[in-house]
């Protein structure tokens, strides 16, 4: 009878572990799934913002006013909430400055400038401004910081397992930046070292846990940086 009770106890323990996989979950490895997590409303918001800003970068280089109109509408379509955690600045660089957020209004104004007096394009800009959506797509957290030269700005976020963590970083000067994301065990799970004005990373966490997002200023001069995440 004693042997039977032990077997029953072991079976109950095994059943409880199967019913609660989070209890037995190993958090010692890399918190990165190879499986693409389904997009959430907030991750879609960050995707839209990052794509809008990348399109604006292209429009500025190509002097394409109509592309800039589309970029402005994309940025305008996303609601943003200002982040309260400003993170930490580390490195040898010093100095203070301001960080400017590029708004949809700024991009519409650029589109008018790029129009070069073309009445049809100016009319298209004004029509797009008149029908602006005032933020109807999801919601993103935006944190703005001045990052001196030769320093690293680190902000920590907690991401849910099975949901994507999406991060966009945009500089407001020509200073080169890099973007890196580390999990709680110090593993590099994503990076964007393209040198583009707008940098982008997407991480698919296995379990709910903290991540460190770093904007690295490789230049000698400081720059304003806007970081958006879900």
Provide structural commentary:
Helices cover 33% and strands 30% of the residues. It has helices at 2-19, 41-62, 65-76, 104-115, 119-130; strands spanning 78-82, 88-91, 137-147, 151-159, 165-171, 177-183, 188-192, 198-203, 209-217, 223-229. The strands form 2 sheets. The chain has a 5-stranded mixed sheet. Strands 2-4-9-6-7 form a 5-stranded antiparallel sheet, with no helix packed on it. The protein is globular.
In short:
This protein is an alpha+beta fold.
Based on the model shown, name its key terms:
alpha+beta; five-stranded mixed beta sheet; five-stranded antiparallel beta sheet; about 35% helix
Helix-strand layout with pairing:
Elements: H1 2-19, H2 41-62, H3 65-76, E1 78-82, E2 88-91, H4 104-115, H5 119-130, E3 137-147, E4 151-159, E5 165-171, E6 177-183, E7 188-192, E8 198-203, E9 209-217, E10 223-229
Parallel strand pairs: 1-3
Antiparallel strand pairs: 2-4, 3-10, 4-9, 5-8, 5-10, 6-7, 6-9
pLDDT averaged residue by residue: 88
The amount of helix comes to: 25-40%
Determine the number of helices (DSSP H or I, runs of at least 4 residues): 5
Overall number of strands: 10
Largest sheet: 5 strands, mixed
- Class by alpha and beta content: alpha+beta
Q: Give the C-alpha Rg.
A: 22 Å
Distance between termini? 56 Å
N-to-C series of helices and strands:
HHHEEHHEEEEEEEE
